[in-house]
Amino acid sequence: MPRSVRARVLLGSVVTVLIALAIVAATVPMSLSFFGAAFAALVAAFIGAYLVQRNITKPLQALTQRADAQPDGDASFDVQGPEEVMRLAAALRRAWAAVRSEHDIAQEERGRLATLIDELGEAVFIADDDGRVALANAAARALAGSDAVGRHLAQVVREHEILAAFAAARSGREATATVERTEPRRFMRAIARPLEGGQILLVLQDLTTLRRLETVRSDFIANVSHEFRRPITSLKAMAEALEEGALDDRAVARDFVHRMHQEIDGLAQLTNELLTLTRIESGAETLTLVPQAPADLLADCARRMGPLAARADVALLVEPGEAPPVRADGERVAQVLANLVHNAVKFTPAGGSVRLSAAREDGRVAFSVADTGVGIERADLERVFERFYKADRSRSGGGTGLGLAIAKHIVQAHGGRIEARSEGPGRGATFRFTLPLAE
Fold it and tell me: Cβ of 211: how many Cβ atoms within 10 Å?
C-alpha cells in the first residue's frame, strides 16, 4: 500500500483515540492514573492501527508487484487478506488472464506475419527516415547480403532508380521505379511507401523471369505464325494455279498435287508434334519405365539414323562404353536420341561427324550427342530448347522447330536434365542429357 494510505490509517486511529480522550477528559476529573490509562490506550491504538494496516497493505503490496509484472512473468494473484482484498485479487486475476490471452494472440500473429514476410519472393526492406535498414526479409538478404540490417540503404542497394524512389517516399508519397539492365539481363520493379513513425517500406520485385517468359511467348507467336504461314501460302498458291488452268496440264497438275501432299504431310507432322509436346507437358503421356541398357539405346539409334547421316555424308559414330542400365521408357528415349541426331546431322557439313556416347556421372548416366557442325551462338544456348525457337542461320534448314523442345520435356519427365554446349560458331555443339539409374 502507498505510504499516503498507511499514513491516513494511522492518522485516523490517532484522531479516534484523541477524540475518545477528549470525551473522557470532559466528563471525568483528570488524574495521574487517567493519563497513564490514556497513554496505554494510545499505544494500544497505535499497535492496533499498525496491525490493521499491515493486514491490509501487505496483500495489496503483493498484488501491486504482481500486477506490474510482464504478461509472460510470474503474475500469481493468490494472496490472503480481507474480503475486499480477495475480491480485488480475483478481479486482477481475470484481468491478467485476459491480458495474457491477448498478448499470446498478438505474439502468434506477429510470428505468423514475420514468417509470411520472410517467405515472400519479393525483397522487402523497412528503413528509417535516415535510410538505415531496420528489417530485411530472406529475399532482401539474398539480394543485399546477410548483413543488410543496420546498414544504410545506399550501401546495400546500388541502383540509382531505387534510391530515387526511396527519396521520393521520404517526402510522404508512394513512388515506383523500374530497373532494367542488359549485362547481366535483369529487370526489377521497386515500390517505396511511407509508413507510420517515419519509416519507409521498400519492395523490390524481380521480374526478370516474367520478362523472359514474355519474350518467349512473343517469339513463340512469331515462330509458329511463320511455320504455319509458309505451307498455307504454298497450298493456296498451288490451288489457285490449278484453278487457273494448270489442272489441264497433267504433268504440272501431278507435280502440284505431289507438292501439296508434301506440304500437308509437313502440317500433319507439325500438328502431331504439337500434340505430343502438349501431352508430355501436361503429364498426360504415360511413361513405361523399365531398365534399359544405354549401349543398346545408342546402337539402335545409330542403326535407325544411319541412312540419314549417310545421305548427308556425315559419319555417325558410337563410342564404346559400359554405362549401367537406366530406368527409362525405351521408345521415348529413342525419340530423344533421334531428335538430337537429326538436329546434329542437319547442321554438320559434309565430311563431318556425329558421336554418340553414354557414361556414368554422379549417380546417373549422361548421354552425349556431339557434332563437328556449325556450332551455336552463346546467346542461343539457353533458348534452343524453346518451342519453335530457331536461330537465323537455321531458317533454311527445314524442320518444325519442335524436336529439341520435345526432347527436353521427355528428359524432364524422366527426372533428368538436358543442356547444350558449344564453343561458338564453327566449333560444333554437344547436347547432353541425364537419366536415373535403374534400381
Answer: 15
* Per-residue confidence (pLDDT) for residue 393, from 0 to 100: 45
The rounded radius of gyration (Å) of the Cα atoms in the chain is 44
Q: In this structure, what C-alpha cell is assigned to residue 258? A: 505431289
Widest Cα–Cα separation across the chain: 161
Contacts of 136 (CB under 8 A, 6+ apart): 123, 124, 125, 126, 144, 148, 149
Give the DSSP letter string of 101-148. Answer: HHHHHHHHHHHHHHHHHHH-SSEEEEE-TTSBEEEE-HHHHHHH-TT-
Contact indicator for 301, 334 with CB cutoff of 8 Å: yes
Cell 546500388 found at? 158
CA distances from 50 to 9, 40, 44, 355 (A): 8, 15, 10, 106
Torsion of CA 259, 261, 265, 271, to 10 degrees: 100
Whole-number Å distance between alpha carbons of 389 and 399: 11
Residue 370 confidence (pLDDT): 93
Q: Does an H or E element contain 432, and which? A: strand 429-436
Chunk the chain into consecutive blocks of 10 residues (it has 439) and report each block's average pLDDT, rounded to whole numbers: 50 58 55 60 63 61 61 54 67 75 80 73 82 83 79 82 84 83 78 84 83 76 76 87 82 86 82 76 78 92 91 91 89 91 91 93 91 87 76 50 84 91 88 90
* Non-local CB neighbours of 144 within 8 Å, separated by 6+ positions: 123, 125, 133, 136, 156, 157
The amino acid present at 375, given as its one-letter code, is G
Grid cell listed for 224: 509458329
pLDDT of residue 208: 81
CB-hemisphere CA count at 13 Å for 230? 16
Task: Look at strands 353-361 and 315-318 and give their pairing.
Answer: parallel
d(CA 349, CA 361): 31
Per-residue DSSP letter, 394: G
CB 131 within 8 Å of CB 166: yes
Q: How far apart are CA 183 and CA 349, in angstroms?
A: 34
The sheet with strand 175-181 has its strands ordered as 133-136, 123-127, 200-206, 186-194, 175-181
| 273 CB neighbour count, 10 Å cutoff | 19
